[in-house]
Amino acid sequence: MHKFVAIVGTNSDKSTNRKLLQFMQKHFAKQAEIELVEIKDLPLFNKPADKQVPATAQAIADQIDQADGVIISTPEYDHSAPAVLMNALEWLSYYIHPFADKPVMIIGASYGALGTSRAQEHLRQILDSPELRARIMPSSEFLLGHSLQAFDDDGNMIDQTKLAKLAGLFRDFETFVDLTKQLNHANEANRQEIRDLDWANL
Questions:
Q1: What's the average model confidence in pLDDT over 55-83?
Q2: What is the pLDDT of residue 201?
Q3: Where are the alpha helices (DSSP H) in the chain?
Q4: Quick check: 166 pLDDT over 70?
Q5: Residue 172 has what DSSP assignment?
Q6: Neighbouring residues of 187: CB distance < 8 A, sequence distance ≥ 6
Q7: pLDDT reported for residue 192
Q8: What's the pLDDT score for residue 174?
C-alpha cells in the first residue's frame, strides 16, 4: 500500500481544500495511507543567517522523505497559489530537498465555477524550479468548483461524475508513483545540483 503526504495548501480554518483531502483520505483508505499535513504554523520565510530551517519545516520535510508521493490541494487567490503555500515551499527548498524527484499530484477546490486552474499551473511552475525539482503528474488537473456545495453533511462528495474523475486520477497517480520509482538514475546528481545552488545569490 502506498503512503502519501497530503498538503493542505492554505491557512484557512474552514477550507474546502482540507475537506477535499479529508474526503480522499477516507474514500481511498483501502488503496493508500494518506496523511494530512498543515502548513499554517510555519513562520514567514526569512533566509536565516544560520541556514537552519524551523523544526516545523524539517518535520514536514521528513514526512515527505518517508512518503511515496505528495498530494497538494491548493485554493486560488488572484490567479495564483496562496502566499502561505509558496512560503511553505520556500522553506522546503532551503538547504533541505524533500521534493527532489518526488511524485506530486496537484488538485484544488474553489467556491467559484472555474476551480483552481491558474493556481495549479502556477504551482506546477514552482515545483519544477531548480530548487525543488519535483516530478509532477502530467495532464492531471482536478478542479472542484462550487466547493461549498460539493460535499454532504458526512463529508462525502456529491457529484458522482467528479468523483469518478478523481478516482481515475488517483489510480493514475498510483501508477505514476510506481513508474517514477524506476526513474531514479539521476536522483543523486539532481540532489547534488540543488545542494550546490548558492542561496546567498538567489
A1: 95
A2: 59
A3: 16-27, 55-66, 83-91, 117-127, 160-180, 187-196
A4: yes
A5: H
A6: 100, 101
A7: 85
A8: 98
* Separation between Cα atoms, residue 19 and residue 174, nearest integer Å: 21
The three grid cell numbers given for residue 136, joined into one nine-digit string: 509532477
Q: What percent of the chain has pLDDT over 70?
A: 98
For residue 202, is pLDDT > 70? Answer: no
Which amino acid is located at 40 in the chain?
K
The residue among 20, 6, 16, 8 whose CA lies nearest residue 112 is: 16
- Model's pTM, two decimal places? 0.93
The kind and range of the H/E element at 35 are strand 32-38
Number of alpha carbons in the 13 Å side-chain half-sphere of residue 199: 16
Q: Which are the contacts of 93, defined by CB distance < 8 A and separation ≥ 6?
A: 99, 129, 131, 132, 194
CB neighbourhood size of 197 (10 A)? 13
Residues in CB range of 192: below 8 A, 6 or more apart: none
Contacts of 67 (CB under 8 A, 6+ apart): 3, 4, 5, 35, 102
SS (H, E, C) 65-102: HHCCEEEEECCCECCECCHHHHHHHHHCCCCCCCCCCC
- Interval 79-89: pLDDT, tens: 899 999 999 99
Nearest Cα neighbor of 124 from 111, 142, 143, 137 is: 137
Q: Identify whether the C-beta of residue 105 lies closer than 8 Å to the C-beta of residue 199.
A: no
